[in-house]
Amino acid sequence: MDEFSFIQSVQQTTYQQSNIIKGIGDDAAVFREPAKDIVTAVDVFVEGIHFSKQIMRPFHIGYRALAANLSDMAAMGATPVSILVAVVIPKRWSTKDLEEVFSGIKFLAKKHKIDLIGGDTVSGSDLTLSITVNGTVERGKACYRSTAKSGDIVFVTGSLGDSQAGFHILTNPETRPFQDEGFYIKRHQMPSPRVDFAKALTSVSRMSLNDISDGIANEASEIANASNVSIHLYEDAVPISKSFNQFPSSLQYKWKLFGGEDFELLGTVEEEEWPKVQYAAEQTNTKLSKIGYVTLNEDNKSRVYLINNKKEKVILKKEGYTHLK
Ligand code: ADP
Ligand code: MG
């Protein structure tokens, strides 16, 4: 299939969002947003670094790439409306595989009424997928990492460590079977970004939010640093799924605190506004846990502390994955 037919094959015939004026088919897309703030983000995924065909079907590769993007929108309190997808395609990838990548993207896009409005298609040596997402938020309502204050409650959605557990199951087939394998594998291959929950939070006046792509220790530290505060977390309050304790305890500890890609939301909010957050969670069927609190810095250093299961207070170091190291 040539580039032109490929683009035709991914093109939508109609757009769901009324603000799309020009989608695929010209030199650039056009959309109009008179009254809101526009929120935009881009992610790049490279075969061999972010995913491998061994444990992910092409469908999952596309789905997961978009899930990561949408999670960034949720972490800003924004509603995603459109995406642009750039692909670098190696010769060894078949048209069918590539179409599957796009089915994965479109499956999740449709669920959230997001339109594919453009992209770029080129050939190269490693499959590379870059998705740009555009979203909107009420004026001045974007949720920044820098707004946490001493006294705030720290909360998290969902359960943590599941994606890493799924990855472990997929990459250590000789150690199978495990309980609830399908659940953990799905959490790895098809994570659910908290878009609906984030949209339901508009009545909260001040909230810091971050999505958990690199593990909660890392994300909490980003909020603490950006807000110039410290964060205390209780290990026994960190939510885990019901059969998570089947894994060795050292792995549980590592996965729930440092394991990335659960795409849950970590946030802070003042006590008086906590009921609004609980209400948003109820409305959107989102599991929500209070896991700690924000404090002033001691000796001018932003830190993340963990009150562990032995009631000791330890400093949590960042241990997420970093590129360019
Ligand atoms: P140009 O040469 O002007 O960059 P292209 O031939 O790259 O144009 O793209 C033509 C149209 O197809 C544009 O609207 C572009 O956004 C869209 N397009 C190209 N590749 C993709 C893709 N992978 N996904 C979605 N739209 C794409
Ligand atoms: Mg182009």
CATH architecture of the largest domain: Alpha-Beta Complex
Number of strands: 13
Q: Any low-confidence stretches, pLDDT <50, length ≥5? A: none
Which percent range describes the beta-strand content? Answer: 25-35%
Gap from first CA to last CA: 39 Å
The neighbouring-strand order within the major sheet is 8-10-7-11-9-12-13
Domain tally: 2
What's the level 1 CATH class of the largest domain? Alpha Beta
Work out the radius of gyration.
20 Å
Number of helices: 9
CATH superfamily of the largest domain, please?
PurM-like C-terminal domain
> Looking at CATH, which topology of the largest domain would you report?
Phosphoribosyl-aminoimidazole Synthetase, Chain A, domain 2
Q: Provide the helix percentage.
A: 25-40%
Q: SSE string, helix = H, strand = E?
A: HEEEHEHEEEHHHEHEHEHEEE
Which ions, cofactors or small ligands are bound in this entry? Answer: adenosine-5'-diphosphate, magnesium ion
What spatial form do the alpha-carbon principal axes imply? Answer: globular
Structural class: alpha+beta
- Give the mean pLDDT: 95
Largest sheet: 7 strands, mixed
Detail the topology: elements first, then pairings:
Layout (H helix, E strand, L loop, with lengths): L2 H8 L9 E3 L7 E2 L4 E11 L11 H17 L4 E11 L5 H17 L3 E9 L4 E11 L14 E5 L4 H10 L9 H9 L5 H5 L7 E5 L4 H12 L2 E5 L14 H10 L6 E5 L4 H10 L4 E8 L8 E4 L5 E3 L10
Parallel strand pairs: 4-5, 9-12
Antiparallel strand pairs: 1-2, 3-6, 4-6, 7-10, 7-11, 8-10, 9-11, 12-13
Bound molecules: adenosine-5'-diphosphate (ADP) and magnesium ion (MG).
